Amino acid sequence: MKIMRGIVLSGLAVVTASAIAAPAYPQTAEEFYKGKTLTILVSAQSGSLTDFIARQFAQAYVKHIPGQPEAVVMNVVGAGGMVAAASLQSKQPKDGTVIGFLQRNNLYVPLVDPSQNAFDPREVAWIGSVDKTYYSLVAMTRSGVTTADDLFQKELVVGATGFSNENRTLPAVLNQYLGTKLTVVPGYTDRGEVYLAMERGEVDGWASTLDGLTYGEPKRMLAEDSMKVLLNLGWDSPEEFQDIPNLSQYVTDPEAKSILDFFILPFQAGRPLAAPKEVPQDRIDALRKAFDETVQDPEFIKAMTDQNYAVDPISGDEVAEIVATLFATPETELEAVRKILKP
């Protein structure tokens, strides 16, 4: 028995020594994600356009992530998306199991509003952005304002939602730096309420996103010519409204161009995705690669185009470049921006 016990102990010693001597191999991204759940924080209400896009994206995205985790979409609303952004950065796990489907204003709001410093867009790992945003100024035909040139000659009352929303700030910049005659009425709950006000005659126009003109009542109004697109609020005209002038045809003052650049640049990252910067690099790489594959996935593209939404992506590195450019804005320009955003 003593001999046998010695043999067993000796064997255990060999196994233990081998275990200690064996090199420790890091867990691959596929091994990590297999059997796990990827939570996607969506900084918009359930049922909203952003929520719809996020859910379509989530279904396709996890198919391209190594290990193919399950996807769970969690709506975290508040402060124009800043609540979700701050939660991603400070409260969520840093292992790659939670990412954020954020908003373009998250790229610059902390820069111009000190009260929103719980999120720093320079301190996350950007994965990419699903689409770009384009704005156009529209007006009811009955208003008599039917061309971009009319904006400088005739008054136009336009509706808007929140005071700091782009559908108010862009008209405000046009008034201040280009001399348009827009009277902006903020405070409407959402786009549907603005269009209802337009039909009632309370207001005669507003600054709409391009995708907001491609379906429903706005699409019908444009087709019936009861509403017209007057001006594309960017430096180029999108394909859908190539015959409508854009800002490049009216902006000559360098200061005006700089201020407009600040507001328009984030449109290139219409719906950006991010992960906490502490996530291991190999998982960030896997999430970025999966993003690149998803935005080229024919099934995802079809699901989007069937609903009249274009997939127009940029990479995580490009989102980070936009953030760096915004944070390099001179303080004098930032002060001008803050005045526009301040009630």
TrEMBL record:
UniProt-listed SUPFAM superfamilies: Periplasmic binding protein-like II
Record carries keyword Signal: yes
Keyword vocabulary terms for this entry: Signal
Lineage: superkingdom: Bacteria
Residues in the signal sequence: 1-21
InterPro entries per the UniProt record, alphabetical: BUG (IPR005064), Bug_dom1 (IPR042100)
Family from the record: Belongs to the UPF0065 (bug) family.
Descriptive protein name: Uncharacterized protein UPF0065
